[in-house]
Amino acid sequence: MHRRPPSRTARPVRVLVSVLAAGTLLTCAACSDGGDSDDGGAGHDSVSDVAASPLAAESPLASPRTGTSASPRAGKSAAPALTPAGAKAALITEADLEDNWTQVKGAAGWGDKLVIGKVDVADFLTAKTNAADCQKLLDALYDDTLLGKPSGASALTGFEESDSRLLYQVAAYDRAKLGASLNWLKTLPVKCDQFTATDSKGGHRTVQVIEDPVPSVGDARQGLQVTVTGTSGSQPTTLTLQLAVVRVGTDAITVTSGGLDGTETDTTKAAVQDGTSRLKDVLAGRTPPAQPGNLD
């Protein structure tokens, strides 16, 4: 709107009024930003929620819809997805293991028959639901699905030394399901500390589950030791397995090692440490070294 220029005598008054009006507008704007208005407060919270949500953090395109700059948490770039080639590159090799372990083919078809059995529910007098968790453990040991089915790329390899085996897996998982699987594993030393399983011929096997330490690597980890005592060929037999799981972002490595000769903790530890390092290298776009750094 066009206004007539003020007269010289009225200018001081007009200037003072303009200054006071500008100050009032700035003060009101500050109040509005403070969240006194329902609409303004809701909008501010909505932007914060989007920026802080896991999905927003994962998406390379995620940013508040207002067009303003994202918060530091939302500004982080999304972690690269594990590819089939990357999963294979992240697998450990014979050089990562001590002693005389030999890499073998056909590890995907492994499955020790000693872990096949039906859990005796009578062992769980006051916690019947625990029997289902113990049955799930036995089934997962045979199928090599301790963390469930991968949601993305996966790869596995196996090694043998005398009567011992080591199965190593790398895979991408759904974030929520991976967290739930790790939490489930943590409950097993209490839920399934000792129980009985019956094989197809009616033979009884005693299963014991205890917690087993895992090197402090990755974002989260869990270790178990499972001992199965029964008979094989009419001879007393004891199978001992070490289970180690390490999460790196939404990917994870799983190590299952042991056999009729017991377990080799140093070998499992080396597989976990070197394997985690290899997976991190792959996710960072680097090529894992052909020989682990802890070897001369």
Helix content: 25-40%
Give me the count of strands.
9
The separation of the N and C termini measures 83 Å
Shape label:
globular
Largest sheet data: 9 strands, antiparallel
Strand content: 15-25%
- Which value, in Å, is the CA radius of gyration? 30 Å
Number of helices: 7
How would you state the average pLDDT, rounded?
A: 78
Unreliable residue stretches: 1-75
Largest sheet: spatial strand order: 1-3-4-9-8-7-6-5-2
Helix and strand element order: HHHHEEHEEHEEEEEH
Q: What structural class do you assign from the helix and strand content?
A: alpha+beta
Describe this structure in words.
It is globular, with a radius of gyration of 30 Å. Helices cover 34% and strands 24% of the residues. With 296 residues, the protein is α+β, with helices and mostly antiparallel strands. The protein has helices at 11-33, 38-52, 54-58, 84-89, 128-143, 175-191, 265-283; strands at 102-104, 118-119, 154-161, 164-172, 194-198, 204-211, 220-232, 235-248, 251-259. A hairpin with an 8-residue loop joins strand 6 and strand 7 (220-232). The model is unreliable at 1-75 (pLDDT under 50). Strands 1-3-4-9-8-7-6-5-2 form a nine-stranded antiparallel beta sheet.
